[in-house]
Amino acid sequence: METKLKDQIVAAAKQYITSKGLSQAAFARLCDISPSYLSNILNGIYEYKASGDKTITIADRYFAAIAGRIGMSVVAAYWRTVETPQFIEAIATLEDAKERGVAKMIIGETGCGKTYSISKFMEANPANTFKITVSNQHKIQDVTEELGLAMDVTLGVSTRKAFRMRAITNRLRELKAQGGQPLVIIDEAENLTHGMIGLCKGIYDAINEQAAFVLIGTNELTDKLDQMERYGYKYPGVPQFRRRFKAGTVHLTPIDRQKHFDAFFEDVQDMELRILLRGLCGNYGELHDFLEPALREAAEDGVPLTDQYFRVKYKIA
Predict the structure, then answer these.
(1) Is the pTM of this model over 0.90?
(2) What is the largest CA-CA distance in the chain?
(3) Are residues 115 and 210 both part of a single domain?
(4) If you compute the radius of gyration of the chain from its CA atoms, what whole number of angstroms results?
(5) For 250, phi and psi rounded to 5 degrees?
(6) How far is CA 183 from CA 144, 166, 198, in A?
């Protein structure tokens, strides 16, 4: 990466940090970059001292990470942000939650752009917006650990849930008292266990109207909650948890491939290819996985992307 481009990224990053009211430490966490690396970069020093007297150039990937976080494109883009109905609904729900400090639940099918919408929302609203993604391997301690890390809360060596929950909620109240609009986002919330649901309920009850709390997942989340409610004696607290999020539950518009895919076909002029893509791809995620590499390779070859080119690339008869 040329120094001129690095300088442009640094200038844009400084402006972003100032406009969003971020500290360097908070911005480093958002970019997943060492604070010492970021300090050097922002000071125009694109290298760091290693062991002894050795000096090492800071890798281009760190500059790319910064550019990506602030929405600055440093390479040719073949996939652009499209304001699909699902994107608009998700962004509006997150904005409402953050502004009013309320509980929301966003439910949408796989591949409809939920995680992408979160990413774009966080680009525009990085201050006091904290997101974690829950997997089926997570335990309660993992959730509290990641929330604490996102909020810059020191949890120490204590593994007690009550201690960790208190530290997290105190941090959220502190941010609210300082005039902030804290928002906690749990992505892929269909992976929450009963114990994690209890943790979320405890945090929300402690920060009610002091911070927003948003769960984002597929229909598996509502199906899981329905099942837990039917066997309420086995899952105490679930009906109360459900009540807190019920009024704020938003079901994203189902994807209509005939209508909603059109917005992604700006660079696809071949009508046969459009028909093929509508039949091949069930959602935006799959459309991206097929279309973006094909557009990139066609551009590198200096040819338009056609049905024939696409079929050859993916070995489709």
Answers:
(1) no
(2) 66
(3) yes
(4) 22
(5) -120, 120
(6) 15, 16, 18
Structural tokens at position 217: 């997942």
Tokens 């929300």 belong to residue? 204
pLDDT above 80: residue 55: yes
**Spatial contact of 238 and 197, defined as CB atoms under 8 Å apart:** yes
Parallel, antiparallel, or unpaired for β 47-49 and 55-57? Answer: antiparallel
pLDDT in tens, 159-217: 788 889 999 999 999 999 999 999 999 999 999 999 999 999 999 999 988 999 999 99
Domain count for the chain, please give it: 3
Q: What is the pLDDT of residues 72-104, one digit of tens each?
A: 877 677 888 999 999 999 999 999 999 999 999
What is the spatial distance between Cα 108 and Cα 187, in angstroms, rounded to a whole number? 12
Residue whose C-alpha is closest to residue 182's, from 209, 212, 207, 226: 212
233 has pLDDT over 80: no
Best CA proximity match to 257, nearest among 124, 109, 127, 142? 109
Asked whether the beta carbons of 66 and 59 are under 8 A apart, the reply is no
pLDDT of residue 77: 77
- Please state, in angstroms and rounded to a whole number, the distance separating the CA atoms of residues 173 and 170: 5
Amino acid identity at 204: Y
Range of the domain at 62: 3-69
Q: Which domain CATH number covers 92?
A: 3.40.50.300
Burial 49-61 (b: 16+ CB within 10 A, else e): eeeeeeeeebeee
Tell whether 93 and 131 lie within a shared domain.
yes
